[in-house]
Amino acid sequence: MKYLIVGGVAGGATAAARIRRIDEFAEIVLLEKGKHISYANCGLPYYIGGVVKNRNMLFMQTPVSFGKRFNIDVRIENTVIGIDPVSKTATVSRSDGSEYIETYDKLLLSPGASPVKPPLKGIDSEGIFTLRDVSDTDRIKSWLQTHEVQNAVVVGGGFIGLEMAENLHQAGAKVAIVEMANQVMAPIDFSMASHVHLHLLQKGVMLYLEQTVERFERSNGKINVFLKSGTVITTDIVILSIGVRPETSLAKAAGIKIGETGGIWVNEYLETSSKDVYAVGDAVEFSHPVTGKPYLNFLANPANRQGRLVADNMFFGNTEKYEGAIGTAIAKVFDLTVATTGLPAKRLKQFDISYQSSHTHSASHAGYYPGSMPLSVKLTFDPVTGKLYGAQIVGYDGVDKRIDQISMLIKSGGSVFDLMKLEHAYAPPFSSAKDPIAIAGYVAGNIVTGRMPVVHWRDIQSVNSEEITILDVRTRQETSGGQIIKNSINVPIDELRERTGEIPKNKPVYVYCGVGLRGYLASQILIQRGFAQVKNLSGGYKTYAIASMPITTDFLNH
Ligand code: FAD
Questions:
Q1: Shortest-distance Cα residue to atom 1 of ligand 1
Q2: Fewest Cβ atoms closer than 10 Å to its Cβ: which of 152, 450, 460, 526?
Q3: Which 8-state DSSP code applies to residue 105?
């Protein structure tokens, strides 16, 4: 059996190695258009920033070592320029321009994704880069080493854009991020992205949100970035991190079906519409396990998982179904860790799926043990059954283990009530007896069962205090740091039982405290004393204050 694999990094190299492990005698040809295979694309920003010092550490295998270990015919700088599923052949172009035809019994496409580069005036100027592979990395690194880079602009505030912002800062540049949306990190909700905004501003990163680049112009050794708003940012380097598109040109030209999101369509065995042609990784769309809708997911874990699974399906016949992925992702943004899994509220809204959400703020581990740090959790779930749809966590420590536990629950169809049942390893340096995700589960459970009606930060922004009483149950000292509405009534929780007479009973009461816990206690006190429409502000003042914070770069001019 002869296997032809297009693309030699995450999906392609994984599949090639797995095929070899299950078939010692197969002929395997791995075709890669670049110079490297099986390298750590996720580590590239950290090499640019100097965190990873040794370039060689990025390469898990060289083409020669991989070829030898797995007895694979690895051909770098060989670009597949056409495939013909009828004659089962691929046309390949070598770096010298010569071409040849290669035959196959089974073909795997793992060509990845290509960076979006809009046709803006000046976009091809010197000093403007995209980051996708080792060659891009070398170009950026060399630019940083040969130029005095005092200022950097990152266009696009996605995961990779933010990693680059941090690494350019690490390399000594003053960084500005230009982002078209009103928030960075599109896969998370605005209220959670606000933590990231605050952290970036604190680190001295300039944030240009809801701003679009109109054109670039090089003059006097600098790059001027012209925004549609009229603002001009002068910089020494620009990283374009606007997003990626699935690489589908080969599949399209071969008449292979492209799905509605623009990725290569594959069935549950990862076989394309053309028999014996399979596809994996960034290039494919698959069915989202929660929505059932076609989904593109540009992440390394699914590419590796699919690569292994598809090898089995190519060898054994279609035996293993791909379970799909729900977009579990994590990023380090300076000192902060930001992670997401499943569906944020904005996607649920888009899909018209009815949902409820909760915000909780806990400590990463027991508060009395040194080094405890804040950890904020947002859950999204079915308002009736509590079935988990998604989670987002922002914090400094222990974010990764929590998001992974929730991701497992979502993939197995779990609910917020299952979060309470998670048995976590506990000792003071690692967690609390009630872990932050158990707390999140308890809070969400109270919302689902109706024990704690909630109001969200957005709803409370437009509240008319004539019609609704806003009750602040924090201490007087805490209120000096800011209140939601200036004329909200402040009755500290410990005085509430004696002072309920001060709260009008003829209109709804929205209660808030610091993070939501005292608000919950207060709402129970009021409900059980006959107040009819009491709601607690989810996430308390902390969620409200961070999400309502004006994003301004004005302070940088002073
Ligand atoms: P790739 O790994 O991109 O491999 C595709 C290969 O196919 C490329 O080498 C390309 O040259 C080759 N190719 C394309 N067309 C042809 C052709 N016609 N002929 C021959 N060869 C061809 N994901 C995470 O989950 N976490 C992270 O922290 C993370 N960080 C990242 C940081 C960066 C800078 C980048 C670029 C990506 C990052 N990713 C991360 C995404 C992750 O790397 C990808 O999701 C994953 O590599 C996709 O695997 P793939 O096999 O589909 O494509």
A1: 112
A2: 450
A3: S
